[in-house]
Write a structure and sequence with these properties.
The chain is built from eleven helices and 17 strands. The chain is an alpha/beta fold. The strands form three sheets. It has a seven-stranded parallel β-sheet, with helices on both faces. Helix 8 crosses helix 9 and helix 10 runs antiparallel to helix 11. The chain is globular and about 65 Å long. It starts with a strand and ends with a strand.
């Protein structure tokens, strides 16, 4: 590997450890992670670049990102066509990040030299044509099933039980559900996780700071769990490892993201208001707010980047910003209709007549990236964001 260029996709905890181990081999490290600041990457000895440039320059690629709607199939035919014929690509994160049909073509046609694959869309990969190729190494996604890992897991469990019995913080706790959280605070926890995912969907650059703001009568109680829930929601869409309420602050620290929280008993419009505000690497500010309304505690998105909205949270949303002018709704409505994508709900907010407008759409299925790019160009959108929400 000496003097070779190694591309690391995903610079979270695992990606950083891979970079640390590779540094001693005299390699050139480049990386792609839209949520990592250049200064943080530089500390790891990595030069940030685009995904396209990383694939074009790398002799080896190692993938360490979570599987989300955005990352599924992110390396396909078009990307692999740009690679060096000497490239060897390794995926030990999640199946489906590399399009398996495209990988088979690339290996069969000699577009790349080889691959090491530990994860597949279907596991075990019975009948996969990849298994018949001579230039691929596959491993059975053992995870923590080795003898060494099982021994470490047993020791870790014993230590955690000891800490719990002594009343100390358990560093690998999966959740914080318990009697210490007031019943009035608990419904806000899943809402805050979803709001964190909305926040990430609005971010198109690295995050430098996150501020959680809680307003209303709920602040009479301990609301620190809501900050943890916000971080869990944010990093579940960024980190490749499992994210918990306990390790989420550590993930923020590892990425050089400052985190703060403030509370205020005064909430003018809503009984309680939960907000996440952040600063991106280019200095822009992103914000999203939500609340629970009615007897059924319906989850609603009520603010996006300073614009007031009231949209019930659903699985798929589209957020777009553009110059307010006639005909915009007709353009994207026709485009989505032609693609058989149903718009289940829509709300438009604007700062002034003829000024900037923001549309939040609720759609029944995820909109393909290519279609969103087309619509963004047609309406000259300054923001065009997917918001995909999952229950964590």
């Amino acid at each position: 590997m000496f003097d070779k260029t190694i591309g690391i996709i995903g610079l979270g905890r695992i990606g950083a450890l891979v970079a640390e181990r590779l540094a001693g081999f005299g390699v050139r490290l480049i990386g792609f992670d839209p949520y990592v600041q250049p200064a943080r990457a530089s500390q790891m000895g990595i030069t940030l670049t685009t995904l396209e440039d990383l694939i074009e320059q790398s002799d080896f690629i190692s993938i360490h990102i979570p599987k989300t709607p955005e990352t599924t199939g992110m390396i396909g035919l078009e990307e692999l066509k740009k690679a060096k014929p000497t490239l060897r690509i390794v995926n030990a994160s999640r199946g489906g990040i590399i399009d398996e049909a495209a990988l088979h073509t690339a290996l069969s046609e000699g577009w790349i030299a080889g691959a090491g694959i530990d994860v597949f869309v279907s596991e075990p990969p019975k009948g996969s044509p990849l298994l018949d190729l001579p230039n691929i190494v596959v491993t059975p996604h053992l995870g923590a099933s080795t003898e060494e890992a099982q021994e470490k897991a047993g020791i870790s469990v014993a230590r955690s039980v000891k800490l719990a019995l002594e009343g100390e913080l358990v560093p690998d706790a999966v959740n914080v559900a318990g009697g210490v959280i007031d019943p009035s605070v608990r419904p806000g926890i899943p809402l805050m996780e979803k709001l964190g995912q909305v926040f990430v969907g609005l971010c198109d650059a690295s995050i430098t700071s996150i501020h959680v703001e809680i307003r209303g009568e709920i602040v009479e109680h301990d609301v620190s769990a809501l900050k943890l829930a916000a971080l869990k929601g944010i990093f579940s869409r960024i980190a490749s490892e499992q994210v918990s309420y306990v390790n989420a602050p550590l993930l923020a620290e590892a990425r050089g993201v400052s985190v703060s929280m403030s509370t205020d008993p005064q909430s003018d419009e809503y009984r309680n208001l939960l907000s996440i505000k952040g600063v991106l690497g280019d200095g822009r500010t992103i914000s999203a707010s939500a609340t629970l309304t009615g007897a059924k505690q319906a989850e609603k998105l009520v603010e996006v980047n300073g614009y007031d909205v009231e949209v019930p949270l659903a699985e798929h949303h589209i957020v777009m910003m553009y110059e307010d002018r006639p005909g915009i709704v007709a353009i994207y409505g026709r485009a989505f209709g032609d693609a058989n994508i149903n718009i289940a709900g829509m709300q438009i907010a604007r700062d002034t007549k003829g000024g900037k407008a923001l549309s939040v759409l609720t759609v029944d299925s995820r909109v393909p990236d290519e279609l969103l790019e087309h619509v963004a160009k047609e309406i000259a959108a300054t923001t065009m964001a997917h918001i995909d929400i999952i229950d964590l």
